[in-house]
Design goal:
Blueprint (H helix, E strand, L loop, with lengths): L1 H5 L19 H6 L5 E2 L5 E2 L16 E2 L2 E2 H29 L7 E6 L3 H13 L4 E6 L2 H9 L5 E5 L4 E5 L5 H17 L4 E5 L12 H22 L1 H4 L1 H26 L7 H26 L3 H16 L11 H7 L3 H14 L6 H46 L1
Parallel strand pairs: 5-6, 5-7, 8-9
Antiparallel strand pairs: 1-2, 3-4, 7-8
Helix pairs in contact: 3-11, 7-9, 7-10, 7-11, 7-13, 9-10, 10-11, 10-13, 10-14, 11-12, 13-14
Amino acid sequence: MMQHYDSLPTRERPAVTTDTSPTRSLQQVALRPSSPRTTDSGAQDHGAAHRHLPAPARGPRTLFGAPLGVLRAFGLAVLVPLFLAVGMSLAYLGAFHQPTPHDLPVAVVGTSAETQVFAQRLTDSDPDALSVRTVATEAEARKLIEGRTLTAAYEPTATQATLLVSSAASETSANVAQKIFQPIAFSQKLPYQVVDVVPAAEHDSTGQGLFFLLVGLSVGSYATAAAVAAFAARLGIRASILTSFVMSAVVSGIAMTVAGPIYHVVDGNVWGIWLLGWLYSVAIILIGVGLHPILRHWTTAALTMLFVMLNFTSSGGIFAVHLMPGFFAGLHAFWNGAAWLDAAQTVQYFPGHGYGLDVLRLGLWAVVGLGLALLTHLLSARRVRLANERVATREEEQVIAA
C-alpha cells in the first residue's frame, strides 16, 4: 500500500502533516496567542488583548465616619461663630466685670484751710482713684458738672453735706461718687443729700437710653453694610456708595422714630441727633463695603469686632471713661461710638456746650470708610483686568501655536 502511495504523481499526493492527532490539546489552544482583531477601517484593535478590569474606586478619606472634606468645610464655617464667642466674652467681661475709678474728677467746695486739708487727705487716701480739686462756690461746681469737667462735687457745711452729681452724664459714675462720699459724711456726723444737677430725661430713668439707641444704630448699620457689600460687585462702586448714604439715613431715621415718638427717650433735638446718627451709620456701611472684597465671609465678624466688641465697651454708655480699664479708655479717645454718644448727650442734655471735636471724629471715620471702599474697588478692578489680560494672552498663544 505504501508503494502504491509513493507511485502516485507528486501533484496527486494528498498533503501530509506531521500532526497525526485528530485534535489539538486544550493546553496548545490556550497558549496560542490570539490574532488581533481588525476593525471595519482595517486598523487592528490591540487594546482588546490587553484590556483589564478597572480597579475599584477609592472612597474619600474619613475621620470618625465623616469625609475629611466635609469636616474641613465645617471647621472653616464654625471659625466665625467661635471667634465671635471668644471676642464677645473677652471684650464685655474685660470692660465691665470690675469697674474701678481712676483719676475720677471730683471737687470739694470751699475756700477755708480746712477745705484744703480735707481735699489733700482725700487725694492721699487713694491717689490713683481720684483727681481732687477745690472750687470756691456751689455755683462754680454746678457749672463744671454741667460742662462735664467734674463728675461730682462735695460741699460740707456746719449743718449738712451735699453731693452734686449728674445722672445724665453717667449714672454709674454718680453712684460711684455716692459710695465714696456717703461714708465720709456719716463719719463727719452730717446730714447727707444728693443733688442731681443734670438729671436724665423723664422717660430715661437710668440715663442709658442714648447708649441703647447707639446699639440699635450700630447693629442696623453693620447688618446693612453686609447686605450692600454682598451686591457691591453688581451695583458698581458709585451705586454702592450712593446706596450706603441712602441706607444710613434710613437706619438713623428708624432708630430715631423708635427713640423719639415711640419711647420719648429723645425729647426735642430729634433732627440734630438724626444727623449725628446718619454720619455715624454711613461710616460703618462704607467700611463694610470696603472690607468685603478683602475679607469676604469674615466681613460680618470684622464689623462685629469693630462696632460691637470694641465699640460698646469703649463708648462710655455703661461706664464712663474714668471707670474703664486702660485699653478701653484709650479707645474712647478716638472710637466712633464714643464720639456719637458724647455728641448726642451734649445735644440732648447739655445744650450750649460744644461738640465739634466729636463731629470731627465721626467725619474722619466716614472719610476712612469712603477711602477704603474706593481703594478696595480699584484693587479689585485691577485684579480682574490682569486676569482678563492673562486669559487673552493664552488664547493668542494657542492661536499662534495652531
